[in-house]
Amino acid sequence: MVRQLGELENDIMTRVWQWNRPVTVREVLLDLQAERDIAYTTVMTVLDKLFRKGWLRRDQVGRAYRYEPVSSREAYTAALMNDAWGTSDNPAAALVHFFGLMSPEQREALRDALRVAALFPAPADPGPGPAGTETDTPGEADTTGETPPDTGGHSRAHSGGQSGTDSGGPGTPP
């Protein structure tokens, strides 16, 4: 489950996503100081926390770190939407209500996204053969030895970040 970013975390990540290049604590600090009174150590602490949560990667250059995002804002937003949708007992009804809340511009963006998604359809599941036929030769067992992972009835896209612990990081950690 993806944890929503706090206000300062979001302000910092917005800059990192918009700048689309490695950034230093000082660069983020100077930009934030145009809006609020904030200390260098506060920005440094939040960037470090975002790194530890898996939102940022960092490289040391001299005595300073340069931070860059692990995934995009769009991937973060999609993960939040997927988590919210996954909490519904009736996903179809939740979508209907969600669509009802959309502005005309958002509905047009949804139409555009669906057109793009149609260009890249998911691979077809061959499923069982037609009624009365077998996909394997009679008497042959499935020799692949592969069992598909249990996704709990739905799949979740992974957009990067850490997994295996509830880090509140990007993508879709557990």
Report, as a whole number of angstroms, the end-to-end distance: 5 Å
* Strand residues, percent: 5-15%
Structural class: mainly alpha
Q: Characterize the overall form.
A: elongated
Q: Report the total helices.
A: 6
Q: Reading side by side through the largest sheet, how are the strands ordered?
A: 1-2
**H and E order:** HHHEEHHH
Radius of gyration: 22 Å
The overall strand count is: 2
Largest sheet: 2 strands, antiparallel
Helix content: 40-55%
Characteristic key phrases:
2 strands, 174 residues, disordered C terminus, two-stranded antiparallel ribbon, mainly alpha, elongated
Question: Could you explain the architecture of this structure?
Answer:
The protein is mostly helical and 174 residues long. It has helices spanning 7-19, 25-32, 40-52, 73-86, 91-101, 104-119, and strands at 56-61, 64-69. A two-stranded antiparallel ribbon has the order 1-2. The longest helix is centred in the middle third of the chain and has 16 residues, at 104-119. The chain is elongated, with a radius of gyration of 22 Å.
